[in-house]
Amino acid sequence: MRPPIVLLVLLLLAVAVLTVVGLGDVHSERVPPAVLNSEQQIAADTALSVRTTIDVEASTVRRTAEAYTATGTPTPASTLKALTAANKADLGGALLDAHTGKLLASGGESVSLAGVDAAQLTSGRGGIPPRLVTSNGARRLLYFARVTLPAQAVDANQDQNQVPTERQWLLVVSEALPALTTFGDGRTAQVLDASGKALVTTSRGVASPAVADSALPGTASRAASASGRDSDASGSLTGSATGVRPTVAGWAQVASTTGPGDTDGLGLVVLTSRAVPATTAAADYSSFALEAAGALAGIALLLGLVLNLLVQRPLLRLYLSAGRLARGATEDGPAETAELSRPVPVHGFGELARIGRALESLRRQLLGESGPQEFPAPRGPGYRALAAFVLLLVAGWAVPMIFVLNRADTATSVPAPVIANQQARAELAANRVRQSLDQSYADLSDVATSLPGKNRAAQTDDLRHALTKHKQYRSLYLLDRSGAITLRVGDTPLRTLVHVPDGGGVTTVNTSGRIPAIAAYAQVRAVKGKTGAAGVVLFGEIDVKTLNSTLARPHLGSVWVTDADCRVLAASLGYRAFQALPDAGLTRLARAAQSAPGTAGTATSTVLSSSSGPSVDAAAPLAQNGPTARLGWRVVTAEPAAALQLPAVQAQQRTMLAGILGLAFGAACLGWLHVVVFRPLRSVAALIEKLAGGDRRTVLHPVNHDEVGSVTRSLELIRQALAERGRADRSAQPADLFQSWPENTLQR
């Protein structure tokens, strides 16, 4: 009996302490943590974009070198020209002998080859990672690739009597660092080297002078170095301020997220910074926390006192009285008279009062003062009513905490910088999707240029090779002018739209079904006099999982890619193909981001309320140029306000948590008390009233080993004593009758 009562009081007091500690720790800061966190994520998203660009460029250089086919007797100069002519990003190139490191040819600006060991670089397997070097006072990225010439490709200077052998050269390409795409007015983005020197700087709109904080790059570089060079760590900083606008900054390393990658070892760090308005409204929840905790502590102590006076003490007295009557019923002589002479006090109400009155009746029956006594049906409140009252008292404190108090007004509690940062992250997400689709189109265009003039078997081999190399495609196929598939490799196409488009780009090839079919397409140039496969357009259906994987980012919330009709094509979470956005407000936001396909569009953001709660939402057009510009697609994001580290939201969450804990603990302890005390008392009250009413046959079995069980055992002893006396009285009745007959009757 004591454990649930004591535990109820202790748990409610613990909730009161947690309320003081949790809510007392919530206070407004000059820069809310949500602003710092979102700036950190913007830096991480920007670093991901830089990492993707470097990885793509490194793979492009390698793929170009692998696809190079020597014709005739190639020279190093002609080979270098063929390998670098198509890439406009190349600033300079060099071709080295893989064994000796001798410079064979160079072109464009001078390539810094200091520290480049060709033999060591080409000795291993896999791709050679890029390097960051200084050339003519500028920082450049060097990309490397192995160029293998077949044994038949010999130049004019080679000894004709010498047996041709396969040769390997090392291609070195010098390029500038990737240009940064910055989103969010007033934001500055920089790429730093390991020493904290800014290599690339770009701004969006007019950046505040405070953003150019000279201490931020060094601080970010040191923080990145402390986290390890080959990790994708990120963080946030607070810089100097101009007036009431402090500078917030985020940094992130440009390193591979998993395993060794092309950007490991470069030591590049992305730093983004922006001046934001400081929070001026103070928020202090200490007084509310003390008031709420004091009220709960008072309720806890009151409940402990009530349960002690109305349950614990009366039950203990009843336990002692039942034990005393059991001893009196089983003993003889003066001890019996002493134990049974004292009346049984009736304490409490409900079941305990019923048991006390029945015990008093049993005491008089044991003394022979009265016979069995019938008890009326119970009336009035019992201990279940007490349990309901206690629960209502706890709920009276908990329910307002859960549903009423400290409700965050998200329309005013979400700072404007957080909404703006969500919009910037939506634009970054759209940029990632655009990069992925543009790269898919570029890869498909390269495949399309290799197909003209080849027979069907050669084209099939090329398509299979491309499907193996480019994992984003699920199916590659050629269409003739009627739209029929003439050649296919990979999975069965999902297309339901039969059309032969002009030019090249990205499009959808179905409008319904379980999986959206997004495809890149490119024209296959016709060759005069060649009879290859009758295909004019090459389609590559993109696995939608490739797009889905680019959308999920930490603390960005749910992300959707929609078509011009706001139907979902890809998402960061489970979705149904071509379904509408989950909320009408999101649909309106998406339509506001781009009015018609082919228009530039404008990113937008706001705070919306829905059935699942308020959220910070943003929408951005997918692209303003390139193969995806005319699609009219959008990227829509929704981050729940509950996930933001805002004082008002934190206060609401912790207030609700305190209410939930208080209600849960109160219900659990009262449930425990009902199971071990209140419900057994009802059973014992019914049994003892039957016993006092003359039922000597029903055996009383103790169920629990506690106070109620002890009372039941005592009642069983009393029942046995009363039953034995009843049998003794019945056996004595014939003898008494015999003694009362007249003597002459006995003689006759």
Mean pLDDT: 86
Record field, number of beta strands = 20
Tally of structural domains: 4
**CATH architecture field of the largest domain:** 2-Layer Sandwich
Which regions contain 5 or more consecutive residues with pLDDT less than 50? none
Gap between N and C termini, in Å? 69 Å
Question: Can you describe this structure?
Answer:
The chain is of the alpha+beta class and 748 residues long. The protein has four domains: 52-175; 180-275, Beta-Lactamase; 288-403 and 670-701, no CATH class; 419-645, Beta-Lactamase (2-Layer Sandwich). 44% of the residues lie in helices and 18% in strands. It has 17 helices and 20 strands. The strands form four sheets. A five-stranded antiparallel sheet has the order 2-1-5-4-3. A five-stranded antiparallel sheet has the order 7-6-10-9-8. α2 packs parallel to α11 and α6 packs parallel to α16 (707-739). The longest helix has 46 residues, at 647-692. The protein starts with a helix and ends with a helix.
Task: For this entry, give a set of tags.
748 residues, 5-stranded antiparallel β-sheet, alpha+beta
Summed up:
The protein has about 750 residues and is of the alpha+beta class. Helices cover about 45% and strands about 20% of the residues.
Give a topology summary.
Elements: H1 2-24, H2 33-67, H3 76-84, E1 90-97, E2 103-108, H4 118-123, E3 131-135, E4 138-149, E5 167-175, E6 188-192, E7 198-203, H5 215-226, E8 234-242, E9 245-253, E10 269-275, H6 286-330, H7 334-341, H8 350-367, H9 383-403, H10 410-413, H11 416-449, H12 456-469, E11 473-479, E12 485-490, E13 505-508, E14 518-523, E15 537-542, H13 544-551, E16 558-562, E17 568-571, H14 584-593, E18 604-610, E19 613-621, E20 634-640, H15 647-692, H16 707-739, H17 743-747
Antiparallel strand pairs: 1-2, 1-5, 3-4, 4-5, 6-7, 6-10, 8-9, 9-10, 11-12, 11-15, 13-14, 14-15, 16-17, 16-20, 18-19, 19-20
